[in-house]
Amino acid sequence: MGFASGFFGGITLTSSILYLSLAIHQRNRIHQSTLLKQQSFLLTSIVEPLPPIPLPTARVQRVSLLETAKDRWNDEVEGAVRRLQRTDWSAFRVSLEDRIAAFWGNGMEKGREGIQYAEEDVIKPGAERAIEKGKEGAQYLKDEVVKPAAEHAVEKGKEGALYVKEEVVEPTMQKGREQVQFIKEQVRTPAISEL
Question: Is the overall model pTM greater than 0.85, yes or no?
Answer without folding.
Answer: no
